Structure formats: C-alpha cells, structure tokens
Amino acid sequence: MDTTISIGNKGKGVRSDCSVTLTITESGGINLQIDSKVKSLFGKQIEQLARQVLTFYKIENATLLIEDSGALPFVMAARIEAAIRKLITTEKEFLLPMLDVNLYQTTRERNRFSRLYLPGNTPSLMINAGIHHPDGIILDLEDAVAPDKKYEASFVVRNALRNLDFYGTERMVRINQVPRGLEDLDYIVPHNVNLILIPKCESANQLHQVNERIEFIKTKHGVKGNIWLMPIIESALGVIKSYEIATAATNVVAMAIGLEDYTADLGTKRTNEGNESFFARSQVVNACRAAGIQPIDSVFSDVGDMEGLKNNVLRSKSLGFDGMGCIHPRQIRVIHDNFAPETDEIEKAKKIVIAFFEATERGLGVVSLGTKMIDPPVVKRAQRTIDVAIKTGKLNQNWREVEHVS
Amino acid sequence: MSAKFEKNALGRLVPTEVNGKSQVPYQGVGKYKPTGRKYAPPIASCADYPADGNKIVPSLKDALIKSGLRDGSVISSHHHFRNGDLIAVQIFDIAHELGFKDLVWVPSASFECQSSLTKYLEDGTIHHIEGSMNGSLGRFTSEGKMKGMGILRSHGGRYQAIQDGDVVIDIAVIAAPTADPFGNATGDRGPAACGLLGFALADSQYANKVIVATDNIVPFPCVPWQIHGNYVDYVVVVDQVGIPEKIVSGTTEITKSPDRLLLAEMTAQFCDETGIIHDGFSFQAGAGGTALSIGVYFAEILRERGMKARFARGGSNKYLVKMLEEGLVDYILDGQTFDLEGVRSMRENEGHLNTSPFTSYNYHGKGNFATQVDVVILGATEVDLNFNANVVTHSDGVLLHGIGGWQNCLFSKCTILPIPLFRDRIPVIRDEVTTICGPGELIDVIVTERGIAINPLRTDLIEKMKNSNLPIKTIQQLKDEGEAICGIPEKPTFTNKPVAVIKWVDGTIIDTVWEVE
After folding, report:
1. Same domain (yes/no): A355, A384
2. Residue A394's closest chain B neighbor by CA?
3. CATH tag for B52-129+162-247 (out of 3.90.1150.10, 3.40.1380.20, 3.30.930.10, 3.40.1080.10)
4. Co-location of A321 and A211 in the same domain
5. Cβ separation of A402 and B395 shorter than 8 Å?
6. At residue A406, does pLDDT exceed 70?
7. Domain boundaries, chain B
8. Inter-chain contact A132–B262, Cβ cutoff 8 Å?
9. Contact B425 A132 (CB under 8 A)
10. Which of A70, A73, A330 sits opposite B258 (nearest CB)?
11. Strand A294-297 and strand A254-257: pairing?
12. Residue A326 DSSP SS3
C-alpha cells in the first residue's frame, strides 16, 4: 500500500482549488505545511480544518502539505478526505453540515431548457455556476474527468452537493457508464441530488440496476424524496432501444441525446446542420413524447458561436425538444431566449392568469375568458408560461402591478 | 520614526507630518478649502535661451546636469507609455552613476517595467516615491523598505498638489513620441505614439526645469503642440522612448469571463432601469475588461433605442472609438489612450478631444469635467458596510495599486462599482476596509454577481429599482453572503510604522498604509 499520496490540483491557472500531499508516518505527530495565497487571511482556518479531518480519521502521525490557490472549505475538506481514504481503509465520511438551502426537491415537469455541465474535479467552475441561472447544473463524473482523477472528483462532487448553493437550479450529476457508475451513486444519493444522468444508455436494464442501487442507498441512509433519472442516448443501439429506455422506470423524467458519441458510433462526423443525426433526434423526441417525458437535445460545442447556437436551438425546438445541454454559462441566455415562449404566447397566458385571479377574488369556481371557459390544466400551463417568461427576462416579476399602474 | 498621528474625519489614524512636511488630516467631502495663491515656477527670460529655438542637448545626462540635478532633487515623469516606458529608469541610472542621493520620484503612475528602481530605493539613490506604487514597488513599500514615506495621489490630486505647491518639482522629464527642437511635443504620432500627454501638463507648467526626451524629432513646429515648448528648457533625442507593443496595455479587451460579463450585464441593466441611460447622457468606464464590456452594452442599448450619448470620458479604446464613429456618442473626452485605435481616432476625429488632469479632475479649480458625468464605472479591492472603498491595498494589507483617476471620478452623478463578491476565497465586502481611498458618501452602487447594494443615501435609486427583476440587497446581506461562502477572514497584522499615505483630492490625508508584519 502507498504511504504517500497527492490529491487535487495546483499550478498556473488553478484557482479555488488546492493540492494536498499526505504521508502517514509511524511517529512524530502531525507535521502540517500550508502554502496558501490566502494564508494571511485564512491560515488559521485552513490549519483548523486540516487538523479536524485528520483527527476525524484518528490519524496521529502524518506529514500533510497543502498547496492552496484559494480553495473554499468544502473543496479543501474533499481533498484531504480523499487523500486519507486512499491510504487507510475506512467507510467513514467527513461531512461538513449540509446547507439548508440545498434541501429542495424538484418536480417531474419543471423546465429543463438548459443544463450546464461542470467538470467534477474543477471546483472553480462550480462556484459561480448557479448565478448564471441555468435550469440545471450537472456535476460531471464521466467524460469531463480524467480517468486517474475520477476517484478524487467524487468527493468534490459530493461536497458541492452539500455545501455549494446553486441558487435553486436542479442539482444533477452525470455518473459514469453503468456498471462503473453504480459506485458513484454512494457519493450522491444521500446528498440530495435531484436528478441523475446515465450516459451511454442502451437498455432498460441499466436503469433498473441504477434504481436498485438508489433504493438500497436510500433505505440505508433514510433518504426521502424523489431522485429523477435522465438517460442519455449515445449510440445506434441506444437510439433503437430509446422507447424501452424512456419507459423503463417511473422516475425517468427526461431523456437526452449525446451526439458526439452517437455520430462516432455511426462512423460519421457531427455537423452544425445535423442531417446525420436527424433520424436519431426525431426518434428520441418520439420515444419521449410517447413515454410522456421531456426530450433533451445534445450540447452545442462551439462556445464562441452564439449565432450558430441560436440556429441550433431553433432547430431543436422545431424538432420537438424541450431543452439542451450547455458547456459554457454564456450559452444559457441564448438557449432560454430561444426555447422561451414567444410574445403572443405570453400575452395569452397573461390574460388567462388575470382571469384566474379575478375569478378567485370573486369566489367563482369557474374561470372564464370572454365567453370561453378555462380548464384548470390550461391555467396551470399559462402560469408556467408566465414563470418562464419572468425567468427569461421577457416579463417583469411584478407584471400585474406594473401593468395595472400603466 | 516618531511621527505624530491624528484621527481624521473618517476616524482613520493619519500622520501629521510626512517626510518632514506638516499635513492636514481629511476633514470631509468639500470641507477643506485652502486659501492663498498657487505655486509658481521661477520667471525665465528669453535672453537665457537660444534665439534659434534649438534647445537640443547631447544626452539625457547632460540635460539632467544642466537642470541642476543634486542630492534631494524632486524628479517627475509621466506614465503615458504605461508598461513600455524606457525613460524613467534611465533618469535614476544616471543619477546613481553621478552619485546623487535622496531623490524624490514623482511619477503620474508607476508600472512593472520600473520595478528595477527598487535597487535605487535600497541604496538610497531614491528617498521615496510620490505618485503610485504598483506591483513590486508597492510590495517593497509595504515591507517598510522605503527610506521615506510614500505618498499616493489621484491624477487630479497630483495636479492639485503641483499647482498648490504641495510638491515642488525640480526637474520634469517628459518623454514624448514626437517633438521639435524648441520643445513642442505631441503624443499622437511617432513610433511610440501614445495618444496624448495630459499627465505631463502640470509638470510642464510648474516644474523648475523641464526636459523633453523624444525618439522622433521633427522640424519646428511640432503640431499639435500638446506640450508647449515655451515651458521647456532642454530637448534630448534618444534611440527609443517607449516600446510600442507595451504602451498598448493588455487590459483593453472586453472580458471573456462569464462571471464578469454577468457583472457588466447587470450594471448596464441597472443603468437602463434607473433611467441613467438616456438621450444625451454621459459616462466613464475604465480600462478593465468588465468596464469595457459595460461600454459595449451601453452601445447596444443606445443603438436599439436610436439614442446617443453626449460624451464619454476617460481612457479611449477601440470600443469607444467605434461608438464615436458610429454616431452613438458626440465626444470622447480622452485622458489617456489605451490602444492604437484610440491614437488614430485622436488624430482623425474632431470629436475626439484630449483632456488633462487639470480640465477633468483638479479639485482646486473652478469646477472640473468629472463632476458632470452621469455615471462612472470603477473597480475596488474592498468595500465596507458604509460603502467606503479601497483601491490601493489588498485584503492582506499589501500595497499593490495606484489611485489613478478613481477618487476624482467619485464626484460623478452616480458611481457604480461592479465587483465580484469574492475573489478566490477573499470576500470583497468587509466590516472595515484595509485602506480607505474613497468615502462611502460618494459611492452609490455596488454590483456583485450575487446582488446589487444601493447606498441608503440614494433613496431615489432605491425607489426606481423597487420593481426590478435585478437582485437588490443591502450591503450587509451581501457581506453575509460572501462570508457564508468564504468564511470570515482574519485581519492582516501591521506594525505601527506608516509606509505611505493616501491623499484625498484636496490634499488632505484620508488614510495611512502601514508596514505589513
């Protein structure tokens, strides 16, 4: 067994992260060395945290070097814990108190226009992800993490789920391909993950395995609440099996297509026009609609080309997709603007919602607009249109007051 | 050091004497009004200058000797070449070679290319710096290694100090991209073109001796004569005054960082919703990536509404020039030119005017331009709960930046600081800033990616933003939010030795920089 281990990131360009090098020794007590760019402001707190984690694992003799580029406590704790658990065998987890604001649940039918991928081992990209208000963030344990960093990434992802505020976005994690991905579930299921993405999905059975493991962990940890699934179709076989996958379990709320792997599987190249994936995309949309879940499109990889992204979104929407992935925060606005309801839809929704409020105020059981009766699901859909319009900046949040005044 | 200290109007402990001169503690905005007459340089006579107008001497060394360089001389230089300056270091190389000691350097700003001057601060050639101490010079100062006490002034404060005689410059060395033998000089052309030379205006008017150094000598007359040869004693022709690619500074591209773009977008939206952006409005945005992006958003809004701005103040760059040439703004009132497009525009566009710290910023004058600007976008390293802000030291106490025009710009009709709530792990909103550079009463809005705080004094802005979708919060809420993420930082520890003072725009001392432990 190794006696020295290095975990984390350091060097030029690394921010909000740290590298820890741990050697467990036979004697000599704790030898702690802190090399931090914020040492004059946080040196004592860094030392305190390091000693707290070491004590938690009953390590009395060790040399610990922390090379810090301004890591937040949840990152540093993850790094130190990962190093320790690489050297000693233990099931114990060092957990900082869960933020209360992170205890929210998401609904099956919520908007999933945009979901922002965040590499699981790069904390600097996670910290401000929520302020860009994507519908969801994806802490990625799969392709965005190098194979030799997957172990340490799971600690960062777990701690981010507990201690980082994503400001109400849906908290998603992309696990590794099943069966490797089943192990990832231990790090996320007890920590209020809202939705799990299952990559390279090719059978209903893979989802059954995931759900079985989720149920096992939920029972073990007394976890309540829903955990939604979003399988990703990334192969020719996956496309063929898409309906089977979409209907594999009741907690599948959406299904996505991943075009990089899919086009590679077809033996062709991905183009902006997307003719090569037309069939696959339509098939996924059809399977989703038949199953009553949301079809979600692939990412658009050229982060500098906003016009290309816009065209891509419009094409996506016209094919029937309800959302798509993004790999850069600047893409979120373009995606929302173009998936969002158009002006005439918003105007219609406003009339319905106003009619609903007036009916409620007058104590009427029936909502009507002119001579037309409005059914409750229509009101609900209109309210959702309004919510989306506000969220995408197309409508003022106090639109009723503002418009009454003017 | 047995300096005496006094608490100023902001409760900050400041020395009553700096480098042997007695000082006035800060008294409040607009409170200190000195009387008397301005400083004047000695009367000169044409009888002492060549009738043919040729003031060329063989070398900078000759010029310095002829100008009476001696122990304790006060020598000034300007920073229009930014990090491409080749002249300032040469001055002190010469002074060192000649064995002079205890010189005072009065740059309009210092840059990393001048960091080698630390060796002259160490060996006693230079006694102290009055201007700005950036990067390594700042660190050197903070470590208490400078013999005298540093004095930091704003661009306007520098003009004020020279005009009022707070600083008496013995020798001004004005590096010029183009000049004639009489000493007329311009910055808008020549191999080292830098736009304008406004920061050297006070030096030319008030220094006892004035040397113009150029690498592009033209026959009389050099037009435009941004610097009048009638103020100049000697002209020196050198191989190269500045490195062109370093004159154009790297901070003149709009940011690509999504977080900063968000800040810029929120700021522009704030200005739009409050009605600050209107037909005929005026603005100033600095040179940083975020500020430049805000200018770009302003342009978009103006274009969409078919409106235009009356003037934009501040450092010019290609984005401002594009606005000018597109008709989105009538005038650029340029204080320093940040890129070659700015330099070109200054030569070609009638609406592109060069200004100086006298016209834009000087507080001891009959008004200035900065107060007339509708909105100014500035940065800060820290802000406190009373909206007092810091631009010179970092939270670890180390002096790293100059003031620039920052203090002077605070007098605009609305001052907005778009800043991230924390940098790495360091929260920006503090109980108390390390160094106060600007009083909170002049700072109106703090825009962070997690919320916008409006100064409670600005009830008008608070009222206007009542129904906004933007996240309006109190500054206390922002502070709490930042500390919840980062933790509460410890305070840096200082010795009781002052290493520099921060002058307010009226020449009083607003705060002290202390030696770091």
Report:
1. yes
2. B469
3. 3.40.1080.10
4. yes
5. no
6. no
7. 52-129+162-247, 258-496
8. yes
9. no
10. A330
11. parallel
12. strand
d(CA A36, CA A42): 9
Give burial (CB, 10 Å; 0-12/13-18/19+) of B89: middle
Write the single-letter amino acid at A244. E
| One-letter amino acid for residue B130 of the chain | E
CA of B296, closest CA in chain A: separation in Å?
16
SS3 A232: strand
Q: What is the pLDDT of residues A355-389, one digit of tens each?
A: 888 888 888 778 888 888 888 888 888 888 888 78
Name the minimum distance, in Å, from the CA of A170 to any CA of chain B.
18
DSSP string for B187-241: SSSSTT--S--GGGHHHHHH-SEEEEEES-B-SSPPSS-SB-GGG-SEEEE-S-S
Q: How many folded domains does chain A comprise?
A: 3
Q: Please answer yes or no on whether B487 and A73 come within 8 Å at the CB atom.
A: yes
First to last CA, chain B: 16
For B109-132, write each residue's pLDDT tens digit.
Answer: 999 999 999 999 999 999 999 999
Q: Which of B266, B425, B480, B481 to mutate to test the interface with A (most CBs of A within 10 A)?
A: B425
Pick B258-496's CATH classification: 3.30.530.20, 3.40.1080.10, 1.10.10.10, 1.20.1250.20.
Answer: 3.40.1080.10
CA gyration radius, chain A: 24
Chain B residues with CB-CB distance to A43 below 8 A: 490
Question: What is the extent of the structural domain holding A54?
Answer: 4-87
ipTM of the complex in this document: 0.90
- What's the CA gap between B118 and A235, in Å, rounded? 63
pLDDT tens per residue across span B24-51: 999 999 999 999 999 999 999 999 999 9
Residues A304, A331: contact at Cβ < 8 Å? no
